[in-house]
Amino acid sequence: MATKVLLVLCLLAGPFAFGQSTVISFEAVLEGEALNLTTADQGAAAGTKLGIHTLRYYVTRVQLLNGGTVVYTEPDSYHLVDAAIPESQLLEIATPPELEWDDLQFTIGVDSTKTAAGVFGGDLDPTKGMYWTWRSGYINFKLEGTAAECPARGHRFQFHIGGFQAPFNTARRVVLRTDGSSFLTVRLDLDKIIHNRDLSTDYRIMSPTAEALEFADSLQRAFSIKRASR
């Protein structure tokens, strides 16, 4: 957490201080608290405790809207958010001065056009562990952990949500109402994903399926804007 705060301060000292950038921080929470990753062994040893050891997802096609009209689209907008890498959880997008907007929208996943074009570098590099094959494409969202009720080896659950071709396109658009601030925190509530599943029977998705579509739908409802406490 301290590392992430330092990164934010560095951004504030840059172009952001002159109102030419918008900073979006992505924050995952579990059981109402900021997510702390465990290792696979730590989670299994805990037995009765739910543990998350991998959380990665693609945030793409970031757009800002004003009154329902798109006023800014980030170019080449492909970001891999990794809970294990603090700097990946901060997106700084250069925006025109005095831009007015009230909605943020983005896609969780890689669009079919980009996927069909082949593999790429940067955050889309297959070595990031988020690519299946040319036929199945990218993993849009990856969540792995342990839970006592999970009957798999080591009590491990795995949700690799991907697929870009009909009828199993799992990319999902998220639209969030904001106050137009130059610094936003987008919260991912893992409780809305995990606690609606019975991990004793539903603990593994590893290919584009109907189950993956249902999981992707739950992702849309799990994101929100973190409001400042009063």
Question: Quick gist of this model?
Answer:
The chain has 230 residues and is α+β, with helices and mostly antiparallel strands. The chain has 5 helices and 13 strands. The longest helix is centred in the C-terminal third of the chain and has 13 residues, at 210-222.
Lay out the secondary structure.
Blueprint: H1 2-12, E1 21-30, E2 33-34, H2 40-46, E3 51-66, E4 69-73, E5 78-82, E6 90-94, E7 103-108, H3 112-116, E8 139-146, E9 156-162, E10 172-177, E11 183-189, H4 191-194, E12 204-205, H5 210-222, E13 223-225
Parallel strand pairs: 1-11, 9-12
Antiparallel strand pairs: 1-2, 1-6, 3-4, 3-5, 3-7, 3-8, 7-10, 8-9, 11-13
Could you explain the architecture of this structure?
This protein has one domain (20-225). Strand 3 (51-66) and strand 4 form a beta hairpin. It has helices spanning 2-12, 40-46, 112-116, 191-194, 210-222; strands at residues 21-30, 33-34, 51-66, 69-73, 78-82, 90-94, 103-108, 139-146, 156-162, 172-177, 183-189, 204-205, 223-225. The strands form two sheets. Strands 3, 4, 5, 7, 8, 9, 10 and 12 form an eight-stranded mixed β-sheet that branches. The chain has 230 residues and is α+β, with helices and mostly antiparallel strands. Mean pLDDT is 88; it is low at 8-18 and 44-48. It is built from five helices and 13 strands.
User: Which residues sit in consecutive blocks of at least 5 with pLDDT less than 50?
Assistant: 8-18, 44-48
**Shape type:** globular
The total count of helices amounts to: 5
- Please indicate the percent range of residues in DSSP E strands (runs of 2 or more): 35-45%
Question: Based on DSSP secondary structure assignment, what is the total number of beta strands?
Answer: 13
Share of helical residues: 10-25%
Largest sheet: 8 strands, mixed
- Which quaternary structure do these chains form? single chain
Structural class: alpha+beta
Compute the separation of the termini in Å: 22 Å
Encode the helix/strand succession as letters.
HEEHEEEEEHEEEEHEHE
Mean pLDDT: 88
| Domains (count) | 1
C-alpha Rg (nearest Å): 18 Å
